[in-house]
Write a structure and sequence with these properties.
The chain is mainly beta and about 260 residues long. The chain is built from four helices and 21 strands. The strands form six sheets. It has a six-stranded antiparallel barrel with strand order 16-17-18-19-20-21.
Length: about 260
């Protein structure tokens, strides 16, 4: 059925835990994210989708669903498209100007197999989505999000959560992470101790029950960039995160994982 495939053609679309505007936002679609429709609500106003990039599921407003054919969906899943590097870019889509956000995916490739209505004009900075980059690039992208406000379920520079931040930074840098911190902790290679950590490693933090509740990216000199209130830089110790302003321990260190190849 052609209607069960879609792509985000808005700047950002909320993905909710239930079929309601008042339901918790669990993630977001950015421009270019494609997905599969799993079911429709009884009233037809909401669609439960599975996002192709990370297999994450949630509900979107049916009015924000943009239908694409199966062939286009498969092309999106297999081609190396461009990902945007500017905080905000402007595109011309369907003869209308639209703002898109950092980390959006553009149907720009050497393999032009798209419908005429999918053509768009873009002249900002971008890179190939699958091109893997080094720590300096990861750091550059991470710093672009600095001071972005924290928002539960957010993946936008104007509202982002801790795992949305790490996922987007690594996505833009060419590495695929799962959506939630509790899923990301199962990826990569375990780093046994903080003294063995390298810039670019992920640090995970747990609550008193040992549940993973937070994640951030290690920078040089045991600094950590993470989304807590806002995207900020704090000190990382063997105990956890030391807040740079009031000097208190805010998160308990659980483990460190390496995603980037060691240089």
């Amino acid at each position: 059925m052609e209607e069960n495939k879609g792509i985000c053609r808005l700047s950002v679309v909320p993905v909710r835990s239930k079929a309601s505007d008042t339901s918790e936002q669990v993630s977001q679609l950015l421009f270019g994210d494609h997905y599969q429709v799993l079911e429709s609500s009884a009233d037809g106003k909401w669609l439960r989708v599975e996002i192709a990039y990370d297999s994450y599921q949630g509900w979107i407003d049916a009015k924000q669903h943009y239908i694409i054919p199966d062939a286009y969906y498969q092309e999106l899943s297999s081609s190396d498209f461009k990902v945007t590097l500017d905080l905000v870019s402007t595109i011309l889509f369907k003869k209308q100007t639209q703002n898109i956000l950092l980390g959006s995916v553009l149907p720009i490739t050497s393999n032009e197999l798209f419908h005429v209505e999918e053509s768009l004009a873009f002249n900002g900075e971008s890179k190939s989505l699958h091109q893997k980059r080094d720590f300096e690039f990861v750091k550059r992208v991470a710093l672009t999000y600095l001071n972005s406000p924290y928002q539960w379920g957010g993946r936008s520079p104007f509202g982002i959560d801790c795992s949305g931040f790490t996922q987007n930074v690594f996505k833009i840098s060419g590495y695929r992470l799962n959506r939630d911190a509790s899923q990301q902790v199962d990826q990569g290679k375990l780093v046994p101790h903080l003294t063995d950590a390298c810039p670019g490693d992920l640090a995970f933090f747990s609550n008193e029950n040992g549940k993973i509740t937070h994640v951030g990216i290690i920078l040089e000199d045991h600094q950590l960039i993470h989304a807590s209130g806002k995207v900020r830089i704090d000190k990382l110790t063997e105990e956890g995160i030391i807040h740079s302003e009031h000097g208190q321990l805010t998160h308990k260190l659980h483990s460190i994982k390496r995603i980037l190849p060691k240089e």
